[in-house]
Amino acid sequence: MRKKKILEKSYRKFLEKGKGELPEEIIITEICKDYGWTYQEFLSQPYWFIEIILIKMKLEGEFIQKRKEI
After folding, report:
1. How many CA atoms lie within 13 A of 65 on its CB side?
2. Residue 60: which domain range?
3. pLDDT digits (tens, 9 = 90+) for 11-28
4. Model pTM greater than 0.70?
5. What sign has the CA pseudo-torsion 55, 9, 33, 70?
């Protein structure tokens, strides 16, 4: 139950402030949602492929953040 509260607090902070580190569990759920994968499909992907997805998500987030500041 404590883990759930920590995840909720971290995600809420990220959504409200638009910055900070997302917990790994939240990142995995976002990737699964975006790509239409189950958790098992996520786990079956090669590590290098997941790294590329994370780089893409990070750069897109930074781009969106910069556009909001303009």
Report:
1. 13
2. 2-69
3. 888 888 776 778 899 999
4. yes
5. negative
